[in-house]
Amino acid sequence: MTTETDTPATTPAVDPRLLVREEGLKGYLTEFKRKVRGGELGSLPVVIGLAIIWIVFQTQDSLFLTAANLSNIGFFLSATGMIALGLVFILLLGEIDLSVASVGGLSASVFAVLAVNHGINPLLAVVLAVAGGALTGALHGWFFAKVGVPAFVVTLAGNLFWNGLMLSLLGDSGTINVKDEGFLHMLGQRSFLLDSDIAGAYILATLAVAMMLGGSLLDQSRRRKAGVPFRPTSEIVVRSGALAVLAFAAAFMFNQANGVPTALVIFLGLLAVCDFVLRRTRYGRQIFAVGGSIEAARRAGISVPFVRISVFAISSGFAALGGLFFLSQTYTANLGGIGTPNLLMMAIAAAVIGGTSLFGGRGNVWSALLGGLVIQSIQTGLDLLSMKTSVVYMITGAVLLAAVVIDSLSRKTQKASGRG
Q: What is the pTM (predicted TM-score) of this model?
């Protein structure tokens, strides 16, 4: 006869994340080592690579890490980064969009034709150009999701078609010069809050830290009430403090030059919005689900055609914005600057080098920023050393191949460890 004391007590399961946080710094180090051994490298390779690139170029030319040069990198990466941001959504589905450069060029041409040739209000011209870009993406997505044409073929055809339409819009001269005013003037400014350069940079740094701190505390409160694991206050304070150091150091650096470029501010703001959409919304989870397994997504009740069409629309919408960002740097709409195959390759390289997997289902929007930093740092550094364009392409291609190799090896490691 068994008694109540003879029955073994049932021990409730403890979430591993709670154990890690209870161990403090030692627990986080253990978790970090486990992830690396399991192939979950995250942004670690690109951060290490970026540090190596900066060190190499600084040793070759002491001007590389000056405030003026770093400000130039931030200003020029925003255009390519904007296109790469849209491509991240496509890559999360495990697909590719070969039309983004031509859509960006078409958007710049539409703006130029409307604002210059027809005298339409520049702000309205911006809205129409971006909306037109999103519609072209939705059309690509429809052929892919509904008709069943492979994304590679649809977007390759789109690349040719939209380039042809762009040339038609530009006319016999092939070039339209736009005025430095309105939205383009704002994008082209090298300092946010032009009348108060120093204040603008520090205001942005303060807002970034406050938003992270407030968002983390709100998420902690929500998770505590739901009875699920949450970050302790000490960790939130440390994370916010680290961001504060980085943000105010960056603000100080930018203020040694011309201030924070407006285009970079808009780019970072859209990055934060897209990060929230992908990580915190149902739609974002659906994108990861479709990218991870289409059949599983269908069984879960997700409308795969809707996700695909909407993602292609998002990609082309950001490509259109990227085209306008390029236009604000050159004030000239032509096929030679925007819409070239080189821009397409650089945008794809930025997204992949930044850590978004070509195989779908893994990555984040910050890849566009990290990859853009790598690409622009290479281009700027080689320009300082007066290297030929051919060398820039070769080095960028080698870095891209290295990123894909690391991604492939990481996936193999995860599968071997049972995490793939």
A: 0.85
